[in-house]
Each structure stands twice: as C-alpha cells, then as structure tokens.
Amino acid sequence: MSADNATLSAQVKKLNITDDTASDTAPSDLVAVVDDLLNQLSSKFSNLSGELIGKMDEMSRRLDNLEATIQAGNEQGRADNET
C-alpha cells in the first residue's frame, strides 16, 4: 500500500498540485493522471473481485463436502440402529 501512496505522491508532485500554489499544469496532464489512477483502481478491483469469488467458491465446496459427510454419517447411524 505504501508503494501506491508513493506513486500517487509522485504523480501529484509531478503535476505541482499543492494547496499553497496555483497549478499551471495542462488539463491534459491532469486528465492523464486521473485516467491512470482510475485504471489502477479498476485493476485492483478486478483482482480483489476474482480473489473474493475464488474464496467463495472454495467455501461452497467445503460446505458441500461437510454436508455430504454429515448425510453419510446420518445414513450410517440409521443403518446401525436398524440392525
């Protein structure tokens, strides 16, 4: 995360955007930086979404396995009680 903050700080310094001074940065430079930041956010969101979906799929598989194990145990218990 600190690398991301460093990247943002470097971009802001490159554009000479501060609270104290008026910026004479070309609007196209600002648009390029904002576009780059939006692309970074989009990429991170896609990665996070993929990881989240993968973890949910894994949890679902584990729950299915647990349910099958419980059902098999219940059926075995019923069979043992009948004999």
UniProtKB/TrEMBL annotation:
Residues 49-76 form a coiled coil. The keyword Transferase does not apply. This is Heat shock factor-binding protein 1. One of its GO terms (molecular function) is transcription corepressor activity. Belongs to the HSBP1 family. It holds the Pfam family HSBP1. One of its GO terms (cellular component) is nucleus. Keywords: Coiled coil. It comes from Friedmanniomyces endolithicus. Gene3D superfamilies: 1.20.5.430. It comes from the Eukaryota. InterPro entries: HS1-bd (IPR009643). The keyword Plastid does not apply. GO terms for biological process: cellular heat acclimation. The lineage of its organism: Eukaryota, Fungi, Dikarya, Ascomycota, Pezizomycotina.
